[in-house]
Design brief:
single chain; mainly beta; seven-stranded antiparallel beta sheet; four-stranded antiparallel beta sheet; 11% helix
Length: 193
Amino acid sequence: MSNNRINQFDKADSVLEYKASNPSGQKCYTNENGDPLLKLKDTTLYIRKQMNGNQLKFIEANTIRKVGETNFDQSSFEKDRNVVIDAISLRGGLADGTTIVNDPYTSTLPPQVRNGELVMIVSGVEILRVPVMDIYIDPNAPHSNDDSFRTIGHTPFIPNEKGYQIYIELPDGTSATDLNLELAMRVNETSVN
């Protein structure tokens, strides 16, 4: 794990107020007796969707976990599953009708998409708004896997059972058609012990 990932993991600990370590060394929450309740897990959430129009809603109420398409499930995290986002990336895919699971996501994004913005809203409050060009991974630029993610310094927090939205909006008067996009987020999340 790179130093940046370690620093972000430590920052997520602060956000989630970790209190102890279990015997395996994995950080976890404890009750008043010191018994582990929740574990902190480092993972990557992803979703692949096709954009048609001026806005792409990555997460909707009917979003269902499906291998190769997304590991998100609906528009809120279940009880005891809180998520702290520490890094994010966006890759461009093909705009030729290729299915989202067969796309290599190595295409250059059109300018109107690079000039758009990614927005995250939790319970009606905007927690993140970044230019797509900040999180876009240019397939022609050399990079390591860690370089493929833009660190989000303020570690946005998505609490359990709260509705959230993640979408891209393009500049007024522009649109994209049949464009596959892959959004990936490195996160630290809690899970019930």
